[in-house]
Every structure is written in C-alpha cells, then in structure tokens.
Design goal:
Number of strands: 2
Strand order of the largest sheet: 1-2
Number of domains: 1
CATH topology: MetI-like fold
Number of helices: 13
Radius of gyration: 24 Å
Length: about 290
C-alpha cells in the first residue's frame, strides 16, 4: 500500500498558528477570567458561574440587548432591500458601470472613527449641512440632547456607510446570472417584476445570505461610530452591547463580569446567525419546491 504523504499539513501550519494566537488563546484567557474574581494580579479567587448569573440579572444589559436587537433588525430591514434596489438600478456594463462601482464603494473605504466624526459635524446645527438644513426647515433636531434623534442618526449613518456593501454583493450576483434566463423571459413576455421575482431574486439567494450574515454580525458588534458620534448618549439611548462591555471591562475594570458578558455576547451572535442562516435556507428551499411544484 502506498504511504500517504503528510507534508501538505505543513502548508496550513502558519494558519493554525495565526488562529491560535488571534482567536483560541484570547478566548481561553476570557474563559479563565470569567470564572475568577481578580482581586489583584497576584490574587485570584475561583467563583465558578457567579459572574454569569450576575450578568444575566443585570437590567442595564437587558436594555442594551434590546436596543441592539432593534438596531440590527432595523439595519437589515432597510439595507438589504435598499442594496438590492441600488444593484438593480446600476448600469450592467461600460464605463458607467465602472464609475458607479467606484463611487458606490467610497463610503466603505472610510475608517469607522472617521465616519463617526463626519456625521458628528454633519449633524451640527451651526456648521453641519444636515443640522442646519433641518433647522432652516423648522424641524427640531439635536442628536446630542434628544434620544430619538441620536438613535435615528446612528441608524442613518450605518445605512449610509454599509448599504454599498450589500449593493456590491447583489450587483455581483446579478452579473453572474446567464443571459439565457433573460432571453427566455423576454420570449415569454415576462414583466420586470416577474423577472425579478422568478429569476433574479432566487439567483441572489446565495449572496443575500452572505450579505445578511455580514451585516447582522457587524451591526451587532457596532462600537466605534456611535461612540465617536454620541458617546453612547444621550443617557443610554445609543449604548449598544459592545459599548456596555467596554464600560464594564475598561471603565469599571470588572474583568470577571466583563469576561462572562463577552462570552454570552459571543454565544448570542452565534445563535442569532445560526437562526438567520437556517431561516434563509428554509425560505429558499420552500421557494424552490413551490417553483417546481
């Protein structure tokens, strides 16, 4: 019997080492902190699941989780349809397509902290275009003092920043559809809505799953933009889970509860992504069955 060559494993060794240092070792450190009361660098007391129980009883955590869920769901409900609409309206070929793609991707190139600074200035009534325009129209707008205005500003800022990502993914999916499908639809006299419903949307299912998961995970971990724009205020109106975790770990230096909360945070993201993925897969399966049925 010919011996199996195991040398190929050396090719993935750098990846294993990088993952170990960037993910596994930090995760094990967090797990270690979550079951200990760190009194000082030299003195630690094992507390078991005490910090997990304390975090789960924290009302501020429940409020931050609710704000985070509402924000992430709002992001998905707006950015996914808007991104698809943008992709459908973009030119398919020629120099116009290249220019449109470049212009659309500009917001994705801006660092997160700069995005927060841009909207911080943009929303000011004295020097910002948005704030001054709304004030001239007689609309009261103050993202630093009004909780509703702050929350809506963070939402619009995220939509402006990340909808192009969904549009680019949907555009790539649309360009991968063979022309034969459109030719058959034209012969059958199908309307634009029928082409979108029965050709484009089913073919976009794969990229839409990626877009939904990427945008959900990113929006659920949002930190820099609202921190720069509002600092989590006014009050706790824009204090999302990541900011709450930072306050625990850095502001209050409660490493034990912060570690327990970060593990719970990680599990929540995994669970919700698992639910979203399976739901979208089941919707796609049902659509295929109804189409063939």
């Amino acid at each position: 019997m010919k011996p199996v060559n195991q040398k190929a494993w050396f090719l993935i060794l750098p990846v294993v080492v990088c993952v170990a240092f960037s993910a596994i070792l930090p995760l094990m450190t967090v797990v270690n902190y979550s079951v200990q009361d760190i009194i000082s660098p030299e003195r630690r007391v094992f507390v078991g699941t005490e910090w997990f129980a304390a975090v789960m009883r924290d009302q501020d955590l429940h409020d931050a989780l609710w704000r985070q869920l509402v924000f992430s769901l709002s992001v998905l409900l707006i950015e996914i349809p808007l991104g698809i609409a943008l992709a459908l309206s973009m030119p398919a070929k020629g120099w116009q397509a290249s220019v449109t793609l470049v212009l659309l991707a500009l917001s994705l190139l801006i660092p997160w902290n700069v995005v927060g600074t841009i909207w911080q200035i943009f929303g000011r009534a004295d020097i910002g275009l948005l704030g001054a325009t709304l004030q001239a129209m007689g609309i009261e707008y103050n993202y630093t003092g009004n909780a509703r205005d702050a929350w809506l500003t963070v939402l619009v800022m995220d939509i402006w920043h990340w909808t192009p990502l969904v549009a680019l993914l949907a555009y790539a999916g649309l360009r991968s559809i063979p022309d034969a499908y459109y030719q058959a639809a034209q012969i059958d006299g199908a309307s634009k809505w029928a082409v979108f419903r029965f050709i484009q949307l089913p073919k976009l299912r794969g990229v839409l799953v990626i877009a939904v998961l990427l945008r959900f995970m990113d929006s659920f971990m949002i930190y820099t933009e609202p921190f720069v724009l509002t600092g989590g205020g006014p009050g706790n109106a824009t204090t999302f889970l990541s900011q709450y975790l930072t306050q625990k770990a850095v502001g209050q230096f409660d490493l034990g509860p912060a570690a327990a909360f970060s593990l719970i945070y990680f599990l929540i993201i995994l669970l919700l992504c698992f639910i979203l993925y399976n739901w979208m897969q089941s919707v796609g399966t049902q659509a295929k069955e109804s189409e063939h049925g």
